Amino acid sequence: MTSVLLHHFDASPFSEKIRLLLGYRDLAWGSVCIPRMMPKPHFTALTGGYRKTPALQIGRDIYCDTALIVRVIEKLSGAPSLVPSYQAASVRALEEMGDRLFLAAIPIIFRPEGRAALVDQIGEEGLARFQADRAGLFSGGNLSRPDDQFSRAVWAPTLEALEAQLAHQPFVLGEHPTLADFSLYHPIWYVRNNPGVRDVVEDYPALMAWFKRLQAFGHGRRHEMSEAQAHDVAASCDHWQPLEGEFDQSLGLAEGAAVTLQAVDYGVDQVQGRLVHVSQEVLTLERDATFEGRTLGSVRLHFPRDGFALSPA
Q: What is the DSSP letter of 216?
């Protein structure tokens, strides 16, 4: 299988979703640990300014956003899809539930007990930097930073619904895991990973049994790589990953056009490049990457269409 590199940090919940999927598929992967907060100079040299964690690198192709990354891993693994056709609508709906659950988890982490645990981990100064960084992440998009009122309205009712469903089956949609399980796992992992607020998920026995079944998949065959080594991989690669589908002309943009792309919800930093491909599901740009005066060559950035806006530069 083509070697994959995951740019991530250990405390990242969305990275945990991908790490668990790599474990479920028993894949070997390069672990490229990046900073938890901006600046991320090695990372953004490859991504053109996109800052969200994680990103997946294959040679000089960079895949951004977990919605796309999970589908890339599925194709590379060659295993049956985690989105069976007869459950596709249910999986998509539960993915969105997972996104809401993650947003509901954020205020929980910053409750007094959770905040105290964060101070133990990164110190008062580190926590102040972290909060300022995340405030910037939620600036400018169409999604506001969630508050405790939202959290209380979403968190417990969602966990109660999952508890009732999982009392009768090992995974969310039946006897076998689907992408829905991975999408719901990481917000719960995020809260359980903070010892100050871990108890808010402990009173759901069926949910915790499900959580442990997923946790047992592990993280696959991980080997550490530096950010400089990831740059070397991009600079030395002489081919692209294949593109899928016909070029979609509906956006009125031609191949090679100078374009700007950004997320619409949060983390809306703009990326500029040359348009390579537009399929029904994926937007692909090409740009020239440099780092501290070193030319890394052209890289291609791939984003899901859903959740990203593309416009002429």
A: T
